[in-house]
Amino acid sequence: MGLQMPNIEIVTSPTGRSPQNKYFFGNKTSHLDLDRPKYNKIGKEDDFWKLHTDLYELEYKHQLVFYTCEICFRVETNDDRHAQFVRNMFDVVDSPYEHCADWTIFHNTEYKSKTPQILVHLNECRMLIVGTTFLGEIKKGVFGILGFELPEIGILPMHCSAFTYQEKTNLMFGLSGTGKTTLSSDPNYNLISDDEVSWQNDGIKMIETGCYAKSEGLSPETHTTIFNAVEDARNKDCLVVENSEASNARLSYPITSVETAYHNNDIEFGHPDNIFFLTMDANGVFPPVSKISGDTVKRFFETGYTSQMPGTEAGNNDIKPLFSPCYGSPFMPRKVSEYSDLLMEKISRNDCNVYLINTGMNEKGIRYSLDFTRRCVKDAIDYGADDMSKKVLNILENLISKEYDTK
User: I need a labelling partner for 282 at 20 to 30 A (CA). Which of 1, 125, 191, 307 fits?
Assistant: First the structure.
C-alpha cells in the first residue's frame, strides 16, 4: 500500500476537472442522458481497450481499496501524492488483496497523453485516468460512478454537504465553490460530510470520510472549523495542499481532523429535517432565504441555477451564470428526472422542509456576508420561513428565458 507521506503540496496540470475529456463505454450507456453532451459522451470501444491495455501492463506503487455505499472500489495509482489524497478522502482498508473490487480505477500521472483522458466502462466497471494531475478527478470519478449506480437501487446520490444542528439533520446542495463546505463547517454544527452524501431508505449516509475545502480567504476568524482542521492535519502529517496560488486552491484532510464532525462512517443519521439549495446569485435577484415547496423544489433541483466560480473546471477563470441539473450535472449521468423523482419521493415521504439560500449578491450588487448567511440558515432551522415558492419560481423562469448557457 505504501506508507503515509508527510504534508504534501502539489501544483496540478490542469488546475481543474476536465469534463470535456470524459467518455463512457459499454451498452449500459443507453441509460445516459445524452441531452447533456458536455458531460455524457459515448466513446469508441477500441479507444477504451487500447488505453486499458497500456495501463494494465504498468506497475502501480499503490493499491487502495475502500467501500462507500456498499460498493468496493480499488484505486491503483503510481503517484504518492494522489495516494495520500485517496487516504484522506476515503476509509482505505489495510489489506487490499483480501477484497474483491466492484469497480477498479487505473490512475497514472506518468503515462504520456497530450490531453486528459477520463474513460469509464459501465459494463466492465473500470475507469481510466491519464493526462491530468488534478486531484479532484479521482474523487469526482468515484462520485460519478455512484451517480450512475445508486439510483437503480433507489438510493439518491447528492452533491451536498450534511450536518446536524439543534438535533436536526440538514442537507446543503450547491455547486463547487458556492459555500457548502464553509457553511456546513459552522462551529455550532456537527459535520456529517462537506460535499457528497447518499440518501438511502433508512436515512442519509456519508460517501467520503474526508474534506476537500477551498482555501481562498481562509482565516481563523471566519472559518474557524476549517482552519483548525487544517492545522490538525498539518500536525498529523496528512495535509494535502493543491494549487496554493490558484483561484481554485484546495486543501484535503481527513474528517477526523474536524473536531466537530462525526468520525464514524457507520453512524445512521435518519432522514433530513431541512434541505437547503444554495445559489451564488451574481445577479442579486433572489432573496437571501426563501422556503419553497412542491413543483418549485423540483424545478430548482432540475435546473440548479447558480453562478460558476473561477477554477472549478479547467479553462474557466471568470464568474458566469449557469444551470447545473441536480446541483451537480457532471456527476449525475442518468436522465435528470431519475434523480428529481427520487428526491421528491423522499421529501414527500419524510416531510422535509426545503429552503433556497442566496449566498451571492443583494439587489445592490453587494455580496451577502458569511455571518449574515449563517444567521439565515440557523433562523430557517429554528423558526422556519415564509413560503415564497411562486415568487422565486417566477424569477427563475425569467432567468431561464434569457437563454443563459444551460449546463
Answer: 191
**Model pLDDT for residues 271-312, shown as the tens digit of each residue:** 999 999 999 888 899 999 999 999 999 999 999 988 765 555
Specify the CATH number for the domain of residue 286: 3.90.228.20
User: Would you say residue 74 has pLDDT above 50?
Assistant: yes
Judge if 389 and 345 occupy the same domain: yes
Q: Taking Cα atoms as reference points, which of 330, 340, 13, 338 lies closest to residue 140? A: 330
Structural domain total, the chain: 3
- Domain's final residue, options 235, 257, 279: 257
Query: 126 lies in a domain?
Result: yes
pLDDT tens digits along 321-355: 678 999 999 999 999 999 999 999 999 999 999 99
b/e code 120-157 from CB counts within 10 Å (16+ = b): bbbeebbbbbbbbbbbbbbbbbbbbbbbbbbbeeebbb
Let me know the angle formed at the C-alpha of 103 by 98 and 107, rounded to the nearest 5 degrees: 95
Spatial distance between the Cα atoms of 198 and 159, rounded to a whole number of angstroms = 9
Domain span including residue 120 = 13-153
